Amino acid sequence: MGLLSILFGNKKNMIEDFKNRGAIIVDVRTPQEYQQGAIKGSKNIPLQMLNSKIDELRKLNKPVITCCASGMRSGSACSILKPHGIEVMNGGDWQRLSRNF
């Protein structure tokens, strides 16, 4: 098994685990980007507004999968949410992530 299949296999397993536990998908793209296509049932919380939604997300008491166009903003979103006790993973590119939902 190659390194990439190990890495991506683990990510796929994590996504499946989060999904089985009722994870919330938070798409951190702009509303304009989100309107052009998104994962059904995802919440659009633009990265620049994420800090104001932390309490709301924490109250849901569910794991969070972040996504965006490429994985960069969703990685930043993870860095914002983790210190607040939210179980979060970077789902990366929303189009690739959508194949799991």
UniProtKB/TrEMBL annotation:
InterPro entries for this protein: GlpE_sulfurtransferase (IPR050229), Rhodanese-like_dom (IPR001763), Rhodanese-like_dom_sf (IPR036873)
Record Pfam families: Rhodanese (PF00581)
SMART domains (alphabetical): RHOD
Gene3D superfamilies found in the cross-reference section: Rhodanese-like domain
Signal peptide stretch: none
Rhodanese domain: residues covered: 19-99
Stated name of the protein: Rhodanese-like domain-containing protein
Source organism of the structure: Seonamhaeicola sediminis
Lineage: Bacteria, Pseudomonadati, Bacteroidota, Flavobacteriia, Flavobacteriales
